[in-house]
Design brief:
389 residues; two-stranded antiparallel sheet
Length: 389
């Protein structure tokens, strides 16, 4: 820099080169954007949606827990400890008694108060135990068939019990039961949406492509299905399930109940799209070329609005999850000893229980987080499917 405030010619040259490089990068980025394919544009638009990206991360973590749920459990979710009924969430101390930064917990002692007939819980300060990663604990089957006892975190000491979210009415670890229940509550929505997708797309394609009498019959059938009150019908179908059925049988029965009436709206959407698409030139050309009906439907017509189907599916999954939760909460869905978020919320049916033991509402918060995450994801997908807007 010169003494009179003027910039040195070499510095000006470097600034000019940097500015030219920035303009070239911007030009290449714009060129890559306009030359990108449809799915590339969708991904670029989706990445710009901050809340949708956050929702995708949250849901990804939830489904990782579903796949490896035994690994994330701390205690055996079915083990009962009557002396620790309605134990409040245990506190984690970030510093030990010597002042060092080391997360530690203390063993809780349970004692019955003979005046109030309520159990009182006090930490035993002589049982300071640090929390560790990758500890050995109760046995479980990874992926349903691989025996393992490795857990992500815990005390690693069998005599020191730690309940981060407290216990339920039978002294069972609420955190581990929430983790175990996610396997049912988060997958039943995906299975149900796949079944309803197949039914809705297939029936909608047939109705919209052929039209005429076929379309009239299918539309009247859809109207009959849509005229039934949903909740009473679910209750009637659930009550018809045999009481001696196991967890797997009830799981697939509830999935079918949720999906058997979930396809009607999608079928009508597909039908309306096909009524307009069957007159398009490329569809008429495929028909004149002798393409079979199946190829016309699934190769030429259906991919033209696949993005809409993706958004529709992301918005329907939370409705399926809420359906399972509502049925289980009412006692007509998943039944004990099955563990789902709806079954866990049954503990919070009594207002006095909620007032005195609010941690029993944590499974309901998990349902809320999941539904909100799916809604944000659906909003992001809806915006991304129209990248030029």
């Amino acid at each position: 820099m010169a003494s009179d405030g003027r910039r040195h010619p070499r510095q000006e040259g470097q600034d000019g080169v940097a500015a030219a490089g920035a303009r070239d990068r911007d030009a290449r980025a714009r060129e890559a954007y306009f030359n990108a394919g449809q799915w590339k544009l969708i991904w670029l638009k989706f990445k710009s949606h901050r809340w949708a990206r956050a929702a995708l991360v949250v849901l990804g973590l939830f489904y990782v827990v579903v796949i490896f749920n035994g690994f994330f459990e701390i205690n055996d979710p079915v083990e009962r400890r009557p002396d620790f009924r309605f134990l409040p969430p245990a506190r984690v101390h970030l510093f030990d008694q010597e002042g060092r930064f080391r997360p530690v917990v203390y063993q809780i002692t349970s004692q019955l108060n003979w005046e109030t007939l309520e159990r009182e819980f006090t930490p035993d300060l002589d049982t300071e135990t640090p929390l560790r990663l990758f500890v050995r604990g109760h046995q479980y089957d990874l992926f349903g068939f691989i025996p393992s006892a490795l857990h992500l975190f815990g005390t690693g000491v069998p005599d020191v019990l730690w309940y981060p979210l407290g216990t339920d009415s039978q002294g069972r670890d609420l955190f581990s039961r929430i983790v175990r229940g996610s396997a049912i509550s988060l997958t039943i929505g995906l299975v149900a949406i796949v079944i309803s997708w197949v039914m809705g797309i297939t029936i909608g394609c047939i109705s919209g492509y052929f039209g005429g009498a076929v379309d009239n019959i299918i539309q009247r059938l859809i109207e009959v299905f849509m005229s039934f009150p949903t909740l009473p019908l679910w209750m009637a179908l659930s009550a018809a399930l045999p009481l001696d059925w196991g967890i797997i049988e009830v799981y697939f029965a509830i999935t079918l109940i949720l999906s058997v009436f979930g396809w009607t709206g999608l079928a009508r959407t597909v039908r309306s799209k096909f009524l307009s698409l069957r007159e398009e030139e490329y569809v008429v050309a495929a028909k004149l070329d002798g393409a079979p009906v199946r190829r016309q439907l699934f190769r030429h017509m259906l991919p033209s609005f696949a993005s809409h189907l993706i958004v529709e599916g992301s918005n329907r999954v939370p409705a399926m999850i809420l359906g399972e939760t509502a049925l289980s909460f009412l006692g007509i869905g998943m039944r004990a000893p099955a563990i789902s978020w709806g079954v866990l919320i049954q503990e919070a049916q009594n207002v006095s229980v909620v007032a005195l033991r609010p941690w029993l509402l944590i499974p309901a918060l998990m349902v809320i987080f999941t539904v909100v995450a799916f809604q944000f994801l659906g909003d992001g997908l809806r915006d991304a499917m129209d990248p030029y807007r």
